Amino acid sequence: MPEELRGIGVSPGLGGGPVARMSPPPSLPEARAVVDPDQETAVAANALVAVENRLRERAAEVTGEAHDILDAQSMIAGDPTVMEGVAARIKDGADAPHALRDTFDEHRRTLEGLGGYLAERAADLDDIAHRAIAIALGLPMPGVPDPGHPFVLVADDLAPADTATLDPANVIGLITERGGPTSHTAILARSLGLPAVVGCTGALDVTDGTLVTVDGTTGQVRTGVGEEDVAEARERAEAERARLAGGKGPGRTSDGHSVDLMVNIGSAADLAGVDLTDVAGVGLFRTEFLFLDRHDAPGLEEQVAAYAEAFRFFDSGTIVVRTLDAGADKPLQFLGLPEEPNPALGIRGLRVARDRPEILDLQLEAIALAAAQTSADVWVMAPMVSTRPEADAFAARVRDHGLPTAGVMIEVPAAALRARQFLDVVDFLSIGTNDLSQYTLAADRQTGGLADLLDPWQPALLELIGGCAAAGKAASKSVGVCGEAAADPLLAPVLAGLGITKLSMSPRSLPAVRASLAEHTLAECERLAARALETGDAAEARAAVLAETTGT
Ligand code: PEP
Ligand code: MG
After folding, report:
1. Quick check: 151 and 18 in contact, CB under 8 A?
2. Which residues fall inside 5 Å of ion ligand 2, going by CB?
3. Would residue 200 show up in a list of annotated catalytic residues for this protein?
4. Which atom of ligand 1 is nearest to the CA of 484?
5. Distance 426 CA to ligand 2 centre (A)
6. What pLDDT, in 10s, does the model give residues 86-107?
């Protein structure tokens, strides 16, 4: 009998096929006495070389970000300081697996101490350690399985290195026990166009080879289904793809109410190969990617070149550039920010400019110079703004640099509540739902266990969005959404119904969002929004809107 599991649908679409689970990390046996330290050192060294080679081979098979992640990982495995630490521990009596574990743990603690983005890298170190330990124990290397046929990947959560190397041609869908709507798994699944369900309790108990169907819209996973169910899911997915591919034109409801569809990028490279027909522009240019992993800030020329390269894609469109969003989940080495107990509540985003105004000024100068080189309509906004004077001072600074359109992101509830007053001093607002949900629901966006609270369907979040949209309407100024919420096709009519006029998302999400908007009149969107606001939590809101739109 088929059974049903429920999680959060984070990447729409339907898929079905046999499950293959991520091989679990090896469990470390009891420490044993080492008889021959040289032999033990050779076991550890061989394991590290095998991991280094394997990761380098995988790096060579892929390009872009996946290549860089795997290449960096293979370099860590081959780093002589790692082997020195392992050899020293073996000399002190440890066996190879424990020496490997303890050495990587030490490096891990150092990274975790640095917090945020670098702490996320700690998961990469664990990944390398697990691989090396498995080899030292004579076990298969853990990681993404390769059953030799297409499969539905089930995992606890996915590490960046796993997600970077998934072959979309072989993976039908993703299911994870942990992870939330803004997790790495969710973002990757959306960018690959794979159906994905996260926070799915019980998923890891489904054994390899079991046939399942995955619905990335509703979060439903059916296990133990038959071949015919899988075939039907495939047919429906195929029909859906064909239907979406046929959808063209700018974003609008069925009665012609316009909602600009825009894309989120981290650099010009994200626009290469993307069909930009009917895309109104870039709704979020996350500039911090240019600053990551550096000891010094990029200079004026380098910044101008990077921005102009992206602006050139949109000679007749809008590009919304976000100034540096450093701190918390995006720590930047060169800033040397002080260690804080709660970085998400500390010096991040625009707050960095309190002590380091020159960084913001240099960036604004670069954006202005790049804007002057192209005819793109360049808007500039700041992240993590909490008060009107902050918004006012930022807008003044943007205009001082000759950039005419200044706005702020709404990521803090205080800002959402005061949207009307903010619009007295800025030209537009863009709602960062990833952060706005973390601060509204008091749930750390980096904690997978709180996925239900971070869910953008939370009525409290929707109410704040509605308030901002109403303020925008009253002031005749643009209010968009550029967080992950904008990529959810079921939520799109709700956001339009709340009064949002711009949705910015990863390019892959555009067809489904466009199609979903085109299925409803504005009045229907408004009714769906009202329905979602009446509910008690995210799950209820999603179920209520799904019931209204599909009659289920
Ligand atoms: C957001 O917070 O929703 C957002 C778009 O910014 P980021 O995810 O980069 O913090
Ligand atoms: Mg944010």
Report:
1. yes
2. 411, 432, 435
3. no
4. 3
5. 18
6. 999 999 999 999 999 999 999 8
Atom 1 of ligand 1: nearest residue by CA position: 432
Q: Within 6 Å (CB) of ligand 1, which residues are found?
A: 284, 286, 325, 411, 432-435, 482-483
Q: What are phi and psi of 211, to 5 degrees?
A: -80, 130
Query: CA of 370: how far to CAs of 285, 306, 310, 550, in Å?
Result: 14, 8, 9, 47
Six-digit token string for 541: 């809101």
The one-letter code for the residue type at 549 is T
- List helix spans (H) across 137-199: 160-165, 184-192
284, 283, 265: which is closest to 274 by C-alpha?
Answer: 265
Q: Is the pTM of this model over 0.85?
A: no
Look at residues 397, 533, 395 and name the one whose alpha carbon lies nearest to residue 477.
Answer: 395
Q: Tell me the β-bridge partners of 327.
A: 330
Beta bridge partners of 405: 379
**What is the token pair recorded at 443?**
């749930």
| Nearest alpha carbon to residue 133 among 90, 165, 159, 95 | 95
Q: Is 482 a catalytic residue?
A: yes
Instruction: Give the ligand 1 atom nearest the CA of 286.
Output: 9
To 10 degrees, what angle do helices 459-475 and 538-550 make? 70
Q: What is the structure's pLDDT at 121?
A: 65
